[in-house]
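User: Show me a protein chain along with its predicted structure.
Assistant: Here is one chain, sequence first, then C-alpha cells.
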Amino acid sequence: MITHLRKQFVVITMSLLTVVVAFLFALSNYYGKYWDDFNDYRLVKMVAQNDYMTIPNDETIALASISSDKDIAIQVNNTYLSNDDVESLVTKMVKKGKKKRQLDGYTYAIKETKDGQMTVAFIDSDQFGNTFDQLLVEVSFTIFGFLLLTGVSLYLSRFIVKPAQNALEREKQFVSDASHELKTPIAAIRANAQVLKSEGQDSRYLEHILSESKRMEGLVQQLLGLTRLETGTAKAEKTVINLSEVLEEMLLNYESLAFEDGKMISETIENNITIQANEGQVKQLIAILLDNAIKHSSDASQITVDLKQEKKKVLLTVANASEVYPEHIMPHLFNRFYQAESSHHQSESFGLGLSIAKAITANEKGTITITQQDGQFIIQIALPAYQVH
C-alpha cells in the first residue's frame, strides 16, 4: 500500500511538473520567437528606410530597389539565394503587402515613396535557428532535468507518505496487540460456557454464547493471520504443489456445503498445473473464494470454478450469480469488514475473507481482481506458474 502511494505521488508530481515545464517552455519559445521577429523587422525596416546597410556585417540580408517601371535592382545580397531568387521573393513580398512582414521564413520591410519607387529589405529569420548540436544539448538537458526531478520526487515521497506509513504500522500493531489480548477472555468465556453445559445447565442462550465465542475466536485468528501476512512476519515455506489436485480435493468438501445451501458447483480444471507456494496458504485462499461464492451467490444458482494455465501464469477463476454492485464500491471490497451495497440497496459485509485473500495472493507474488459481467460476480487469481529449470 505504501509503495502504491509513493508511486502515485511520483506519477502525479511528475505529470504536473511536466505540464508546467512544457507550458513554460512553449511560452518561452513563443516570446523568444516574437522578439527575434521583432528585432529582425526593426533591422530590415531600418535598412529599407536608409536604402543601404550602414556597415558590413554577416546578417543574411538582401536589399533591392524597385523603380516606378517595376524594374528590380539588387543593391545587397548577403543571403544564400541567387539574384534571380531574390528578385522572385521581392516580387512576392510586394504583392503580399508591407503589413504582413513574413514570407516563407523571411522577415521583410517595404518603403514606398510618393513617385511610386519602393525599397525592399528582407532577412532570413531562421539564420540563427536551432542546429542539430543545439537540439541535442536541449534534449540532453531536458532528459537530465526530468531524471533529476524524478529522483527528487522519489526522495520527497518518503517524507510525504511517512505519516501514512506510521499510521498504518500503528494500526497493524494495535490489531495484533488487541487480537492477542482478546484471545484469553474469549477462551475463558468459551471454557466457562462449556463447563456450565457439562453440568447440565443447557439452554439456547448457552448455545448462543458457545457459538458466538467460537466465531470470535475465528475472527481473532483471522486478524492475527492477516497482520502477519501484511507485515511479512508469517512463516511460509514454499514447495512445489499440484494445484489441480489440491483444488479438486477441496471441491469435494465444498460441493456438499453448496448443495446444502441449494447451490451447485461446476468446475473446469486443467490437469497437472503446478505452482511453487505455501500449500497451507493456497488452501486457505481457495477456501475463502469458495466460502465467499457460496455465501454471496443468488439462491439456487450455479458457482463455476475454472483453473487453467496461460503461458507463465496460472489463472484460478471463481464466478457466481450475484446482485449487481455499484462500480464505485468494487475497489473497496478488499477492505476489512467492508459493507457492500447492492443495486437493490441491500447491505452485506464481506468480512475479512477478501482482505486475507489479497494478502495471500500478494505474498505468493500474484494478483487478484474482482469484476462483474452479465450478472456474474467474478474473482480471478493470477499466480506464477512453476517453471522447471
